[in-house]
Amino acid sequence: MELITIEKELNSLEYHGRGIILGKSPDGRNAVIAYFIMGRSENSRNRVFVEDGMGIRTQAFDPSKMTDPHLIIYAPVKVLGTKTIVTNGDQTDTIYEQMDKQQTFEQSLRFREFEDDKPNFTPRISGIVHADGGNMNYAMHIIKSLDGDPECTVRNTFAYSCPKSGEGRFIHTYKGAGDPLPSFEGEPKRVIIPDLSLDDFTKLVWDNLNKDNKVSLFTRYIDIDTGRFDSRIVNKNV
């Protein structure tokens, strides 16, 4: 699979929907996470990320303009011990609860389906990073309909047990524009994790998201030795 830059990939589509990037910094010291949301409707764009414990949640920027919280208000990031969960929906809670009961990441997602936003049937994308004692691994998962048929569910898990320094994977909900929106296809894209500070990495991702459709961005570096982390949030609505 071709190894591409994050900026090239982000500029390849006008509308990725929601996206997750997981990987390892070039020096091998940090696990790298980025999660962004985009929106086309006023309701989708009327959101911000806010801190929530060791994770984040979405909330309405202007509560008076929120017409339907269904599918757009959730906790995208939660931390369970040495594991960081990041998703595009309330399956974050499902993964957290089931893994706390000793289920695996993959097992916990068997409880869920793709989103019920006919006719798009938006995929549920999820990621998990385990960083502890100098070791790191991560996995990604997607639940989607089969070519838009809501009677058929496709579930794919992609696990990376020996991630290379300076590389990551990028999964997003849509493969382009359309009506209905076509779901992401294939393996998560292989991207270069640049040698940047967290602030500069955050700026790189934010600046290369489509300016009309981007809504919010979350980034985090996790020290693989200690588990300590540093995070950033960028909101278009301020």
Description:
This protein has one domain: Inosine monophosphate cyclohydrolase-like (Glutamine Phosphoribosylpyrophosphate, subunit 1, domain 1). It is 14% helix and 42% strand. The protein contains five helices and 14 strands. The termini are far apart.
Give me the secondary-structure category. Answer: mainly beta
Biggest sheet descriptor = 7 strands, mixed
SSE pattern: EHEEHEEEEHHEEEEEHEE
CATH architecture: 4-Layer Sandwich
- Do you know the CATH topology? Glutamine Phosphoribosylpyrophosphate, subunit 1, domain 1
SS element count, helices: 5
Task: Give a brief description.
14% of the residues lie in helices and 42% in strands. With 238 residues, it is mainly beta. The protein has a seven-stranded mixed beta sheet. Strands 6-7-8-9-10 form a five-stranded antiparallel beta sheet, covered by helices on one side. The chain has a two-stranded antiparallel sheet with strand order 4-5.
Secondary-structure blueprint of this entry?
Blueprint: E1 4-5, H1 6-10, E2 18-24, E3 30-38, H2 42-45, E4 47-52, E5 55-60, E6 77-80, E7 83-87, H3 91-99, H4 105-108, E8 124-132, E9 135-146, E10 149-160, E11 167-172, E12 189-192, H5 198-208, E13 214-223, E14 229-235
Parallel strand pairs: 1-12
Antiparallel strand pairs: 2-3, 2-11, 3-13, 4-5, 6-7, 7-8, 8-9, 9-10, 11-12, 13-14
What key attributes describe this structure?
mainly beta; Glutamine Phosphoribosylpyrophosphate, subunit 1, domain 1; 42% strand; single chain; 238 residues; five-stranded antiparallel sheet
